[in-house]
Amino acid sequence: VVVGLSVNDVSAKAIANLGWKEINLIAPVFPGDTLYAESEVLDVRVSKSDPSRGIVTVKTKGVNQNGVEVLNFIRSALIPKRPAA
After folding, report:
1. Nearest 5 degrees, angle CA 67-CA 8-CA 14?
2. Bridge partners, 38 (sequence order)
3. Most buried one in 22, 34, 48, 64, CB count within 10 A?
4. pTM higher than the cut 0.90
């Protein structure tokens, strides 16, 4: 799943940011640049210590106004699970 990057889409309800890895700063960013980002969900799993919570891992990519990728990274967040329907 790829989503437009916003706090609501990725981590608005996050209990905790669990970490970042594979942070790649690929190209320079300059004053006046417009940046866009998208995130792809890589993994979703139930927390081993609390089954009412889940861990979501996403890869986020940032591009400038010319479509040049300037950074990417992977991060994980602890999120409350939705109640069962």
Report:
1. 115
2. 4, 61
3. 64
4. no
Q: How far apart are CA 14 and CA 63, in angstroms?
A: 25
- Chain center to CA of 9: 9
Burial of 40 (0-12, 13-18, 19+ CB in 10 A): middle
pLDDT band at 25 (very low <50, low <70, confident <90, very high): very high
For the cut 80, the answer to whether the pLDDT of residue 31 exceeds it is yes
Length of the chain: 85
Angle at 82 between CA 79 and CA 85, to 5 degrees: 165
DSSP string spanning 11-33?
A: TTT-SEEEEEEEEEE-S---TT-
